[in-house]
Amino acid sequence: MPVWTANPTGLTMTYRYYVEGETYVLEAFIKDKDNNPLTGVTVNLWVNDLYYLTGETNETGKIRFEGLGAFENGKLTAWKHNYKPALADGVDVP
Description:
This protein is mainly beta. The chain has one domain (about 10-85): Immunoglobulin-like (Sandwich), CATH 2.60.40. The chain is about 0% helix and about 65% strand. The chain has strands at about 10, 10-20, 25-30, 40-45, 50-55, 60-70, 70-80, 85, 85-94. A 4-stranded antiparallel beta sheet has the order 5-4-7-9, with no helix packed on it. Strands 2-3-6 form a 3-stranded antiparallel beta sheet, with no helix packed on it. Strand 4 and strand 5 form a beta hairpin. It is globular, with a radius of gyration of 14 Å. It starts with 8 loop residues before the first strand and ends with a strand. About 20% of the residues are buried.
């Protein structure tokens, strides 16, 4: 288990969805408290309280989930070592 090496600060998370052709796309953007994008943040998408998809943010602090169907009341969780996790609750992709 990794040891915390500093007083952890929180992550900030925003997201958007759009339709590309006939495919739903959900993008999440993760930044630190100074509004800098964070690379390597693990982001999980939960639908109906079941784990759905996971991945890590790229160098721009973005992760892209493709090929989704419509859903309601999803959740996004984001976590990285030495940061407090972030939660986006009530994520809807109509």
